[in-house]
Amino acid sequence: MTCCEGWTACNGFSLLVLLLLGVILNAIPLIVNLVEEDQVFKNPISCFEWFFPGIIGAGLMVIPATTMSLAARKRACCNNKTGLFLSSLLNVITVIGAAYCLMVSVQALAEGPLICNSQGNSTSSCEFSFKNLTAVHPESFDLQWFFNDSCISPTDFNNPSINNTTASNWRTYSLHFKSIENKHRIIHFSVFLGLLLVGILETLFGLSQIVIGFLGCLCGGVSKRRSRIV
Q1: At 42, is the secondary structure helix, strand, or coil?
Q2: Is the Cβ–Cβ distance between 181 and 168 less than 8 Å?
Q3: How far from the centroid of its chain's Cα atoms is residue 198's Cα?
Q4: What pLDDT is attached to residue 25?
Q5: How far apart are CA 121 and CA 75, in angstroms?
Q6: Which among 9, 40, 48 has a CA at the least distance from the CA of 193?
Q7: Can you tell me whether residue 122 is helix, strand or coil?
Q8: Is residue 117 within 8 Å of 47, Cβ to Cβ?
Q9: CB within 8 A of 30, min separation 6: which ones?
Q10: Residue 223: which pLDDT band, with cuts at 50, 70 and 90?
């Protein structure tokens, strides 16, 4: 096994682990919502799990490069320039998917769960647009919705548009740790922090494989020329 093959196989195994982890993390809030409410679209934890950053970005878009990298050990497909170039090309898709996962995760951590931002905890209040993913303001990325005792502001009680149920629920949340608000905040924070790390690692592995693939193409050509001369 060549050096390029060894690194490619290692990348393939690492991407496989990250792929499965991303899918599992993305599925957690969906499963929790289904178990609690017995309905998929009612009272979701946030809008961002429905962008499927772990299932599509860190999952499906990583499968081609993972399959190609794992095949390098068995079929020695990286012994030729075509295999190395194809491995690099497929990892470009991996980097794009990982970047998508990163963008969604950053936006999700900046805004917090739906219970902290709106009364209508349903997908009808979600705006599924790629413009929302780029509208990240650094000053809003302070995670106060997670570190505060409650993310529901008590000043909202004076707002006539907020019903009495929300106000009474805020008092309950502040008294009990095992509340719906705290549960949603912990799940939201854990899931998207994990997806953020998955996206970062997949980006690094994808970029490294792109570099290794192109270097392998160049070095492979040089080594063949030297062998012919000898």
Answers
A1: strand
A2: no
A3: 6
A4: 96
A5: 50
A6: 48
A7: strand
A8: no
A9: 40, 49
A10: very low
Residue 177, token pair as written in the block: 């740790």
- Positive or negative: CA dihedral 194, 195, 196, 202: positive
Rounded CA gap, 8 and 218, in Å?
16
**Of 114-118, 192-196, 209-213, which gets the smallest average pLDDT?**
114-118
- Greatest alpha-carbon pair distance for the chain in Å reads 87
Q: What share of the chain is helix, strand, coil (3-state, %, to 5)?
A: 80, 0, 20
> What's this model's pTM, rounded to 2 decimal places?
0.79
Report the run of H or E that residue 40 belongs to, with start and end.
Answer: none
Instruction: Calculate the dihedral angle through the C-alpha atoms of 62, 67, 68, 71, rounding to the nearest 10 degrees.
Output: 160
Over the Cα atoms of the chain, what is R_g? Answer: 23
Report yes or no: 75 and 153 within 8 Å, Cβ to Cβ: no
Beta bridge partners of 42: 122
Instruction: With both helix axes pointing from N to C terminus, report the angle between 180-229 and 81-111 in degrees, rounded to the nearest 10.
Output: 160
The values of phi and psi at residue 186, to 5°, are: -65, -45
